[in-house]
Amino acid sequence: MTQTVSIIVPLYNEEEGIPQLKEKLDPFIKRLQEKFEVQLVLVDDGSIDKTNELLHQFYDDKPYALIIKHPKNKNLGGAIRTGVSHCHGDIIAMIDSDCTYQPSVIEGMINMLDDNTDIVTASPLHPKGKVNGVPGYRIFLSKSVSTMYRILLRSGLHTHTAMVRVYKKKVFDTVTFKADNFLSVTEIVAKALLQGYKVKEFPCEISVRKYGMSKMKFVNVTKSHLNFMRKIVMHKLFRSEI
To answer: What is the topology classification, in CATH, of domain 4-238?
Structure first.
């Protein structure tokens, strides 16, 4: 039986970048359909620009595409939660709408899933990865927190903050996450590791976005990471809930 790959794309006020997203997604999905059934889950997270209009313009005629709109913005974690709840694939993939990662990396990541691998995460901070033009503060944050998570979780991973990943569906049967902001993607992989799921890295390149603006709030996300690290320490010491 052919496996199904569900691809979640969260979007918030991305009207400028949607044509680029479609340009990169279409050939990638066509190649993927040679091996898998594909479900594309586009989550408009309460956009107030023309994001939803453009999504319907480009994808209403695609039987594999599902467009979901939040009445109000729920942030990245909320968009991922909604996306996961609508996925019916054996494999769940997530990609950024701004194409800072090439959607095609998902193909290589899927190929790494096996009996000993439950999650594959994009890893630009891997020694074989590459960072191209991304603002220094974002690289500093990612490197700093990933180093601390690698120590706390003994994960061996170089990147803990990338949203671009592929998961076996079973991961979300047991892993729940509370964060609504950008911490959510780190919370998912941290809790998966603590539950014994096996995670591998896919070295790849991340580039600066060409359209629109990043929605990450540096100070708030930094505070969230520090608080989450504290919870991990308490969990390891006293088995308290994370």
So the answer is: Spore Coat Polysaccharide Biosynthesis Protein SpsA; Chain A (3.90.550)
Q: How confident is the model at residue 214 (pLDDT cuts 50, 70, 90)?
A: low
* Strand, helix or coil for residue 93: strand
- Tens-place pLDDT, residues 79-97: 999 999 999 999 999 999 9
Residues 38 and 65 sit within 8 Å (Cβ to Cβ): no
Q: How many residues does the chain have?
A: 242
Q: What's the pTM value of the predicted model, to 2 decimals?
A: 0.95
pLDDT-derived band at 150, boundaries 50, 70, 90: very high
Give the strand order in the sheet containing 4-11: 65-69, 37-44, 4-11, 91-94, 165-168, 119-123, 199-203
- Domain spans of the chain? 4-238
Q: Which structure tokens are listed for 16?
A: 């400028």
Six-digit token pair at 168?
């076996």
The DSSP symbol for 114 reads B
User: Is 18 in contact with 51 (CB distance < 8 Å)?
Assistant: yes
pLDDT band for 129, please (50, 70, 90 cuts).
very high
Q: What's 199's DSSP letter?
A: E
Q: How many CB atoms lie within 10 A of CB 154?
A: 9
Calculate the average pLDDT of the chain. Answer: 96
Q: Tell me which residue of 72, 66, 107 sits closest to 85, measured CA to CA.
A: 66
- DSSP string over 22-51: HHHHHHHHHHHTTTSEEEEEEEE-S-SSSH
At 134, phi and psi to the nearest 5?
A: -75, 140
